[in-house]
Specification:
alpha+beta; 36% helix; three-stranded antiparallel β-sheet; single chain; globular; GMP Synthetase, Chain A, domain 3
Length: 176
């Protein structure tokens, strides 16, 4: 889709939401993860797309697939890049390069339920998460690109979920 088509679609959708805000609320398509064997899990989308994950060898996996943590970082980076591209299209900015890298620092002891030296449970979540954006657009001032990126990251659903720690509800069904 061209930048003009993206901008036009965004304007149309925004007009709909201005008239009927409730149309913006929807249930997101679930990601369904099914254990395969060992530490391998296959997640699937309703459209048939599948993604396999596995753990590295030192944690009992084969190491031949991406880890769930990498998928988290990929979701963060791709959501931010998508929103930046949408924002650029809406603002009439022609991007010639856009690359977003999501990094994190984690303590594997948390995954194993271990306790630290202070007697506290080590968190399995990353302790630090970072985004690095490389962007290029001819004849666009640096400040305008900076503003575009910052505004877009504020509107990125995955970034916002991380920044604002969305609560997760847990429902358990045990088959007989």
């Amino acid at each position: 889709m061209t930048a003009e088509a993206i901008a036009s679609a965004m304007r149309r959708f925004r007009a709909v939401l201005d008239r009927r805000p409730q149309a913006g609320m929807h249930t997101d398509e679930p990601a369904i993860a099914c254990w395969s064997q060992g530490t391998r899990v296959v997640s699937r989308h309703a459209n048939g797309m599948q993604v396999a994950t596995d753990m590295p060898g030192e944690l009992g996996g084969t190491g031949d697939q991406v880890t769930p943590g990498w998928l988290f970082r990929a979701a963060l980076a791709s959501c931010a890049a998508t929103r930046i591209a949408m924002g650029a299209a809406a603002d009439g900015i022609v991007l010639t390069r856009l690359e977003v890298s999501a990094g994190s620092t984690s303590d594997a002891r948390g995954l194993l339920g271990m306790i630290n030296g202070a007697g506290e449970r080590v968190r399995p979540a990353p302790s630090e998460v970072s985004l690095a954006v490389r962007v290029c657009a001819a004849d666009i001032p640096r400040e305008r690109l900076q503003s575009l990126i910052e505004d877009s990251c504020r509107c990125s659903p995955v970034s916002d979920a991380v920044l604002n720690a969305v609560p997760v509800s847990l429902r358990i069904e045990i088959d007989p």
